[in-house]
Amino acid sequence: MTRRRARLVLILSSLAAVGLAAAVMLFALRDNISFFYSPSDLAARHVGPDRLIRIGGLVAQGSVERPGGLEVRFTVTDLAESLPVTYSGALPDLFREGQGVVAQGRLGEDGVFRADTVLARHDEKYMPPEVAAALKKAGRWQETGGARPAGN
């Protein structure tokens, strides 16, 4: 084998090894990746029921129900679409109607989002950046509302 051919084989095998390592890493991490959706995004796309996702928006006024125990039902809205959510557990102290929220969980076949984790804003001027971006994208962002995305 000539020196040039040996170098070509070494380069191609190195690229193949790097590609294989990247594929194995992405395959291993696929269950840990969660995507963010607003209620409007979920209405436009069909997300499988087994997929771990995050939703964000505002807790709709008058939607919080506490049927008993630690179970809570509420609706997340981006002011264009709404999504019913159920959660069993202790909610953050700052969780309330009309405030920004991000929930992580799975969308059921019945259209109800079953949250494993619920995150709420941490002060009166904070809104999760994903929620602010979704509201801006939907044309529902109001600068006079006092809320600003994190980091601004």
Radius of gyration: 22 Å
Helix amount = 25-40%
In terms of per-residue confidence, which ranges show pLDDT below 50 for 5 or more consecutive residues? 144-152
User: How far is the N terminus from the C terminus?
Assistant: 61 Å
Q: Strand-residue fraction?
A: 25-35%
Give the SSE string. HEHEEEEEEEHE
| Individual helix count | 3
Give the CATH architecture of the largest domain.
Beta Barrel
Query: Under the CATH scheme, which class of the largest domain?
Result: Mainly Beta
Question: How do the helices and strands line up, and which of them pair or pack?
Answer:
Elements: H1 3-29, E1 35-37, H2 39-44, E2 52-59, E3 65-68, E4 71-77, E5 82-88, E6 100-107, E7 113-120, E8 126-127, H3 129-137, E9 148-149
Parallel strand pairs: 1-2, 5-7, 8-9
Antiparallel strand pairs: 2-4, 2-6, 3-4, 4-5, 6-7
Structure description:
With 152 residues, this protein is α/β, with parallel strands linked by helices. It has 2 domains: 1-32; 34-143, OB fold (Dihydrolipoamide Acetyltransferase, E2P). The chain is 28% helix and 32% strand. The protein has helices spanning 3-29, 39-44, 129-137; strands at residues 35-37, 52-59, 65-68, 71-77, 82-88, 100-107, 113-120, 126-127, 148-149. The strands form 2 sheets. It has a 5-stranded mixed β-barrel. Strands 8-9 form a two-stranded parallel sheet.
